[in-house]
Each structure stands twice: as C-alpha cells, then as structure tokens.
Design brief:
2 domains, 3 strands, 530 residues, 2% strand, mainly alpha, Growth Hormone, Chain: A
Amino acid sequence: MAIIGFLGTAIFYTLRNDLSVSIVCMVNTTSTEKVSKSAMCPGENKTTETDTTNTINGHLQWSKRVQGSILSSFYLGYIGSQIPSGYLAGRFGGKIVIASGALIGAILTLLSPSAANINASLFIAVRILIGITQVLFFNYTYKIKLADEKIVYTHTIDELFNWLRQGGLLPSFHTIWSRWSPPLETSLLTGINYAGAQIGNVVVMPISGLLCKYGFAGGWPSIYYILGCVALLWLLIWLYYASDTPSTHKRISKVERSYINESLQAIISSNEEKKPPVPWLTIIRSKAVWGVWCGHFSADWGAYMMMTSLPLFMDDVLGFDITATGFIVALPYIAYFFCINIAGIIADNLRNRSILSTVATRRLAMIIALGSQAIFLVASGYCKCGQQVLVIIFLTIGIGISGVSYSGFLVNYLDIAPLYAGEIIAVGNTLSCLAGILCPLVAGWLTPSGSQKEWQTVFWVTAGVLLLGTLIFVILVEGEILPWAKIAPHQSKSKFNELLSKSDSTDKTNESTTNEKDSTLSENIKYPSS
C-alpha cells in the first residue's frame, strides 16, 4: 500500500506541475513582446535561427499575461473545491474518492493538448478541473490517540508537510492509513507514501524538457499523453490492490490482518461529538494564529512563484535550451527535499537539548528560510552575462533553504492549538492557495517582454512578501498551547470513558474477554488526575 501510494502521489504531482516547463515550448515566443532569447546576454541566442530552437518553439500565441492566467488556473479549482471534496471523502471512503480523482484527472490531462490548440480559455477550464480532481485525490481525515492521560496527536513532520501541500486537512491517503498503519509504523509508511510529492516535482521537470524537444505529436503534447496514460495505469493497480480497510482486503494474510486491527484498537477517529466546538471567533481574534497564517502565506508565495515561473525566467533571462532548463529546474527541489528533513532533525535537537526554546526555534527557522530565500532570489536577478552558473547556484540555495520554514510555521500549528490544528491549518491552506493564484498573474503582468529588469522586479516583490511575512510571524509567534486551545481534564476523562464503554459493550456477554480488554486499555490509558 505504501509503495502504491508513493507512486500515486508522485504521478499526480507531475500532473500538477507539468505545465511549468511545457508552457515554455507551447508558446510561440516570436509572436510575443519578448526582447531576446537571452535577456542577460542580449547579443547572444541559444541557437541559430535554423537550429533546433525552431522545432520546440510552439505555435500558441499567448501573451505573458495569458500565460500567467493559465498557470494560475489550476489553483482556482484547487481552492474552490476543498469543502465539497471533504464531504465526498467522508461519505464514500478513501479508495473510491482517490480512484475518481485519478480517473478524471488522467482523462483531462489527455485532453489538455486538444484544449490548448482550440483556445486559451478552454485550456484554462481544463486546468481548473484538474485542480478540482487533485483535491479529490488529496483529501482529509483526522485522528487522535488516547494515551498517557492526555490526547496525543499522531501527526509526524512528514504527515504535516503533506497536510499543508495537498489541499484538504489531510490527504485522502491518510484516511486509509488511519485504518491500515500500526501506530509504531505510521511515520515510516506515511513517509514513504508522501515522499512521492517531492519525487514527482523533481522528475516532471527533466522529463518535460526532454519530451518538449524529442517527444512525439509535436513535442509538448507528448508530455500530457504520456503522463495521462501513466496515471491510468496507476489507477488500474490502485483498483486491484487497494482497500479502505484490512478487513475488506482480499490479498493479505489473516495474521497480517489481525496484527493491524489489534494494533489500532487504541486509535479512534475524531468527530464533532468527541471534541469541543471550534471557537472560531477566538481563533480569528488570536494574534498567534494570524502570525502563523502570515508565515504560511509568505512561504507559499515564494514556493508558488518559483514553481510556476522559474522555467520562464530561465528561458527569458538565461536563454537555456529547454532540455537543460528541465534538468536545472529540478536541482532546487532536490535541495528543498533534503533541507526539509535535515532542518526537522536539527530543530528537534535544539529543543530537546534545551539549546533554544520552542518559540526561538520557530523564529530562527523562519528567518533562516525566508530571509535567505529573499536574499538569494534578489541576488540572482542582478548577475551579469557569463554568470549563469552563479544564478543557478543562488536559486538552488535560495529555494532549497526555504524548506527550513516547515520547521517554523508548519509545526507551529500544533505548538499553539493541537486540538484545533486541523481547522486552523485549513484556513491557512486556503489563504496560501490564493498565493498560487496570484503569483503567476503577478509574474505575467510584471514581465510582458521577459527582460532581466522586469524579472528583477518580480524577485523584489517576492522578497518583500517573504520578509514581511517573516516579520509578522516573528512578532506574533507563540511556542506554547494557547489557553483557549487546551483540553480540560474532565474532557479527557470523558473520552476515556466513551472508549471504555464501547469496549465493554462489544463483548459484554463474555465477562472474561471484557476484563482483558479493560485491562489492556488501562495499561495504555489512565484516568487523568483531578
């Protein structure tokens, strides 16, 4: 299940980000107001007029503003369908919702070249629908574990990362893992599953660049045809092997089924009856919550701006061949992947060894991540002709180090309000989706001719958002659970009694069996002291 989930996550990240590189070879740059094939070195072109550049110069006459609208369209569907998709996941279960998103998304991807050839508006509509299917594919569930006289939230840093990036409160895959993953194996299994997100980002860039130049059906259409077919192939594997629960799976042994079910006896699904009502008014009034929302938005602004615009910058300013662009754009996201994981280890050590407090750790992470990203982005815009390698180094460091921010704002959701983290991060994620919509539009408006000076303005705007968000976060951040987010002792005891009552009622005709269950629960969950 973990391997299948890994492949699915990787594939659907490629469907999301395939446009970032492919749009470079879809558009006829000679029909736009573009000043040069290499704005950094105006007297130089990537190739001669008769060289292979002509073979990958698309026929679609889209201005930079239209390109910005197309790049942002995915997030219009993404942001507008999170609540309906949450209902569907709860109603029909993880397997069918994931399968539906995969099927519709794959078909729409296969239709993308035809839509683009008809007109930009139809292509935008298709991208919006693909955004909707990705929310179906990545939806939510929420779980808590009763142990050690308190509610312990079982989210790992890997889970939190994907919680943020995928659209719903937690991925639909998480609905399945809440019923499949033994508690001691949750980090490993979900980590494998969700590692596909970064792998998909890294893989799609060079593949798109190669297919632009060497693919069939005119080059760039082959990107969509191949990825759509791969998604359909994965869907067949998913339908054959996947199941919502171990009890309904036909291809696992009885021993494995019993092991999983017994290991999950202390895990219960959270719902509105098992926790207090969400204090929305208090949340909206909380300075600490607004601090983490601002940090969240600014970090995602930088991420979305680079994800959607970096290939265009390399084409406009650096004048790289599309194949080279695909491979080079992947480098920052390899660094990004390692920075996320290394920063998490370092942040935990700083806190566990009492070197820094929680609030100081969160502040330091954000300053290092977004402050450094702002500096390196601006610096990359001012490199001179012949310094293309330096630009790549700056961008790789700047984008890579931004991954440290996940040890700042992301885990701070659980620092300040673990009981309501799902609801609060849902709002934060919705706000961050606005960045996904706005970034391509802003880049398109600011770079009508693709000059280096215009891209310098884009980087300055991005740096301003990064620094402002960091400043607000540093001022407002808290490192402890806020008073209104603490669970009262009697509530924890009530949850225990409810779970214990369910255990008694399942087998009350067999007293000895019931006593064994009560004993097992008592060893793991004790009454909170009054």
